[in-house]
Amino acid sequence: MKLVIQRVKHAEVEVDKKVVGKIEKGFLVLVGVTHNDTEKEADYLAKKLCKMRVFEDENEKINLALKDVDGELLIVSQFTLYANCAEGNRPSFTDAAKPDMAEKLYEYFCKKCEEYDIHVEKGIFGADMKVSLLNDGPVTIVIEK
After folding, report:
1. pLDDT digits (tens, 9 = 90+) for 86-106
2. pTM for the whole thing?
3. How many Cα atoms within 13 Å fall on the side-chain side of residue 79?
4. Where are the beta strands (DSSP E) in the chain?
5. Which end of the chain is more exposed for a tag (fewer CB within 10 A), N or C?
6. Any catalytic annotation for residue 140?
């Protein structure tokens, strides 16, 4: 599983010109799933994400987690995180999990994040989504398990 985490002032995702997920301060998280991912990887990454300390404290030190700043999560599935661009000009997506397996793990991951008492908004798995955000910092972190 791979996450691209962007600290945002706000973010939203639209499907068919309708907002389906929207947050204020927090993280926009792009989630990619590969073939051998399990709930074990999702558990690890949910904990890592929800406890990640990248918000400024009163001394302007990056020291606070989502919960400390009443932050929210907007979690969006993105199979293209497993694009292989090693050969040719057209990426291969064979490293991305099949949709049925990926959707199940994506939904599981979202529920695990909610268990940390953080508000979670989502995109729609497999939909053509339009994502907008105001990156804060910018702070963008990639983690993989």
Report:
1. 999 999 999 999 999 999 999
2. 0.95
3. 20
4. 2-15, 18-23, 26-32, 55-56, 62-64, 72-77, 120-122, 129-144
5. C
6. no
